[in-house]
Design a protein that fits this description.
The protein is of the alpha/beta class. It has one domain (5-353): TIM Barrel, CATH 3.20.20. Helices cover 49% and strands 13% of the residues.
């Protein structure tokens, strides 16, 4: 990798389409919030977040993620975290981001006395101030916690109540930057197809379908996301490499995969970056975007992710330009907005490629 490539990556205009707000809280903000809530029992465990954790599996990762969620306990907390995320965006020249939020858990899972209006107020204040101060744009995806909908055994019983609640929140938030609903959490024993009605209603009301699939479960989960949830984009989707027919479907329909290489390694999907299917998926013609997922937990920023795949697969700056353009083209932005952002990429290309 050329010595100056990382600096070029930092200045390259780009979007990030798969990042969780709760997993993007900087160390400084974690410390600030931990001090604010030092009287609460969960704060004693926050030292774990100051050091990179080694996660055994997805369940182990979720225990750390829950600590991050408990940090956000007021409208001001959401405003602070959103604003500081915007600051980090401009440092990396991320001009636009579509950010996942575990909205249901914040209101219903922990004893935080938070209302939906509290959260929406904080998100909007932080989003607008970041846009004004840093010139960036943030929009929201409200995630549905898939595994909480199933109970019992042989067969498991599905209860759509939580998903319906998240959909209602998303519809109320549309004028405040909510653009879609997602489906997150462990895919094992929590397939996409029972959520079909919720996602159909969401799409009819103008929301995008952006589920996680093909991470902790295989190709069948991705097929379900496409056929049942009419996914506009797939979060992760790396297990598509296991099904040639599915690969062809993704390529023919140009359904984007939002890939998070370091996340996949940290959660032990693949033993090393060299064994990650990123390059094979890209070479096959799948539309790929690069993302950081939970940068504060995995210790890898979006710029780091670009550098990781460049080093591992000998990508040159023209390849990284292609991924930056993909990030805008695969977004939920309107055509005119996409064109405006792509123009910024093209301006960068003219200036920087002429001197390489």
């Amino acid at each position: 990798m050329k010595q100056n490539l990382f600096e070029l990556i930092k200045t390259l205009p780009k979007a990030e389409l798969h990042i969780h707000l709760e997993g993007a809280i900087s160390s400084a903000v974690i410390q600030k919030l931990a001090q604010k809530y030092s009287h609460l029992e969960f704060a004693r465990e926050l030292e774990k977040l100051q050091n990179l954790a080694t996660f055994k599996d997805f369940k182990d990762f979720r225990s750390y993620y829950r600590l991050c969620m408990q940090l956000l306990r007021s409208a001001d907390d959401f405003a602070l975290v959103t604003y500081e995320y915007g600051r980090d965006m401009i440092v990396q020249n991320i001009l636009y981001s579509e950010v996942y939020i575990s909205i249901y858990q914040h209101i219903h899972l922990f004893n935080k006395s938070l209302s939906f209006s509290d959260i929406l107020d904080g998100l909007e204040r932080g989003r607008q101030k970041a846009a004004k101060d840093f010139g960036i744009e943030i929009q929201w995806i409200f995630g549905i916690p898939r595994s909480r909908h199933f109970s019992g055994n042989s067969p498991k019983v599905f209860d759509p109540t939580i998903a319906a609640t998240v959909l209602e929140y998303a519809l109320q938030g549309q004028e405040y930057g909510v653009i879609g609903i997602g489906l997150g959490g462990n895919e094992v024993n929590a397939p996409p197809h029972p959520f079909k009605d919720i996602f159909q209603k969401a799409r009819k009301m103008g929301l995008r379908s952006i589920p996680h699939a093909g991470e902790t479960s295989g190709a069948n989960s991705i097929w379900g996301a496409i056929n049942e949830l009419e996914a506009d984009r797939i979060c992760h989707g790396v297990r598509a490499i296991e099904d040639k027919k599915l690969l062809k479907e993704l390529i023919d329909r140009q359904i984007p995969l939002d890939i998070c290489p370091t996340s996949n390694l940290m959660l032990n999907l693949y033993p090393s970056i060299k064994e990650h299917p990123f390059f094979e998926l890209d070479k096959s013609g799948v539309l790929i975007t690069i993302n950081s997922d939970d940068p504060s937990l995995f210790g890898s920023s979006l710029c780091d992710e670009y550098a990781v795949i460049a080093r591992a697969f000998n990508y040159e700056i023209n390849d990284l330009l292609r991924f930056a353009k993909n990030s805008f083209n695969a977004s939920c932005l309107a055509i005119e907005a996409k064109e405006n952002y792509l123009y910024e990429v093209e301006k960068w290309e003219k200036v920087n490629l002429s001197v390489l």
